Amino acid sequence: MRPLFGLVLITFRELWARKIVLGLFIVSSLVLLAVTFALNLDVVEGSLAGIRLFGQEAAPEDMSGEDAPPLTLSRVVVAVESVVAGVAYWIGILLALFASASLFPDLQSDGRVELLLSKPIGRLNVLLGHMLGVWSAIGILAVYLLGGVWVIMSLKTGVWNPRFLFSLLLVVGMFAVMYAAVMLMGIWTESTALGLIVSYGLIFVSMVLAAADQIGPTLGPVGRPVFWGLYHGLPNFTEVTQIVSTLAKGESVSSWYPFVSSLLFGGAAYAVTGYWFVRRDF
């Protein structure tokens, strides 16, 4: 257990030392400061009386349309938390992949991998320690940002939205899924660039697959099964965005299938990577 923890700690420190991860931490801190000081909500007897954003004041009725429902305190909280969750999901995962893409190819570099494998620890434990280290670093960043926003907004308004915290699990989970593609390309080619291209390419493809209900019926007898095969087999990164937004709003999720199918893809990719890593002659 101690060697595994040591590998986790080494990977965690290596990732944390990278400037992009430090940049993510700084940006997250700025977001928390903005939510704390730049956004001020005047609450009178549990109702929203006014909003001040960067010194600009507005009344709730000024921010609602004629046919729109009144702007309530809970709607403001949900809106802020939804925006932060969406930004953390898209920009956060893209930058986290960029920051961590070179870790696994570097792990397999001459000299380093031989040193690790010379220790009394199995190859699967080396792989597991690496994965847990990367997940831990990204998870801590996600908890810092999303958990911080949740605590700040809840304390400022008295509106507690615990479902928002489930979006944190989706952010970390989908990062783990996309990092599986990076590792699979890493064990195959030891190329950082190709790992990023494939992972970002899968995200782009998911934008097309998200329109499956509109595109599927227009395809022919050959294209339709191929398209639906890709839909069910590849990670549904774009569709999971809707689940993140739904959780941030405190609503019930109608279907978890996009997230579950993405996890299955990630599990399969990690399994292939592990099999290849164990059998590879370093």
Structural class: mainly alpha
Shape call: flat
Radius of gyration: 22 Å
Overall structural domain count? 1
Number of strands: 3
Q: Strand-and-helix sequence, N→C?
A: HHEEEHHHHHHHHHH
Distance between the termini: 24 Å
**Average residue-wise pLDDT:** 84
The level of helicity is: over 70%
Characterize the biggest β-sheet: 3 strands, antiparallel
Which ranges are low-confidence, i.e. pLDDT below 50, for 5 or more consecutive residues? Answer: none
Count of DSSP helices? 12
Strand ordering within the main sheet = 1-2-3
Question: In percent, how much strand structure appears in the residues?
Answer: 5-15%
Transmembrane segments: 20-39, 87-105, 126-152, 164-186, 193-212, 256-278
GO molecular function: ABC-type transporter activity
Organism: Salinibacter ruber
GO cellular component, one term: plasma membrane
At a glance:
With 282 residues, this protein is mostly helical. It is built from twelve helices and three strands. The longest helix has 35 residues, at 123-157.
Describe what you observe in this structure.
The protein has 282 residues and is mostly helical. It has one domain. It is 71% helix and 6% strand. The chain is built from 12 helices and 3 strands, in the order ααβββαααααααααα. The chain has a 3-stranded antiparallel β-sheet. The protein starts with a helix and ends with a helix.
Question: What keyword list fits this structure?
Answer:
282 residues; mainly alpha; 3-stranded antiparallel sheet; 12 helices; 71% helix; membrane; ABC-type transporter activity
